[in-house]
Amino acid sequence: MKNVILLCIAFVFSVSIYAQNESQPIHVKVTGKGNPVILIPGFTVPGDIWNPLVKKLENNYECHIVTLAGFGGKAPIEFPWLPKVNQSLKNYIVKNDLQNATIIGHSLGGTIATWLATQKEIKLSKIIVVDALPASGALMIPNFNPENIVYESPYNKQQLAMDDAAFAQLATGMSKGMSLKASAQEQIKNWILQADRKTYVYGYTDYFKLDLREDLKNISIPVSIIAASKPYGSEMVKQTYNNQYKNLKNYNFILAENSAHFIMLDQPSWFLEQVQMILSSK
Asked: Which range is the signal sequence, renumbered to this chain (predicted)?
């Protein structure tokens, strides 16, 4: 009887721990001292990607390094995923009184940074958007309409049903377009494979539904955009960003030549210099 009771206690404890993990849309590591900088990675990517930048910043800035639920070994959460991530980051900023923080976000992280900049309840200093758009779905999906983007789609079902070998092939193909370096492509592929599959599939659905183009009118803080020139070429990239960000009153646009989506991996020294210059500017 005693053993049964102990087993029941252990079961309840394990369920409790799992529930706590499930309830955490974001996981944040804090290091350094000074003005707060929040670093949000891209889709499937752990916060560790910011380590080289953090080493440069932590002597002068308090760095809040974010990893999102379902990625980087973190437990998944219930859906909808992205709205919970966004709200949790907003709550984190308010709870920790991160007044005049700077947010640096890559890809999805840049889109999240843009969303946070539209929120009246928090006062940010500036945001740095790294190869990110306010409405990625509008670029990727013909006849874009957020209402038509749903979890239960043939494409999502196909991805969820893929065996490991087929999904690894998909991840390999995706990674090759995201960096110019073979070593970085391998790392990106591994991040995709390590991600919770359901978060990967449905998280993209959340991502593509988000359209912040009209909300850009509500942003008054300085915005710097660092955009990759590859694989589409400088002129097409400039045109895409001009179209997507046309409702933003003012922004500083910086083109990363000879770089694909993961600019911090393709042009690491240049990227660190750009971010430090933006942070030091008024």
From this structure: 1-19
CATH superfamily of 26-280: Alpha/Beta hydrolase fold, catalytic domain (3.40.50.1820)
- The token pair at 26 is 């974001």
Summarize pLDDT for 169-210 with one digit per residue, the tens: 999 999 999 999 999 999 999 999 999 999 999 999 999 999
For the chain, list residues with pLDDT below 70: 1-23
List, in order, residues 6 or more apart from 45 with CB less than 8 Å away: 71, 72, 106, 107, 188, 191
Q: Each residue of 201-226: pLDDT tens digit?
A: 999 999 999 999 999 999 999 999 99
Give yes or no for a contact between 61 and 37, defined as CB atoms under 8 angstroms apart. Answer: yes
Q: Rounded to whole angstroms, what are the CA distances from 222 to 157, 188, 248, 254?
A: 41, 30, 10, 14
| Residue 197 main-chain phi, psi, to 5 deg | -60, -45
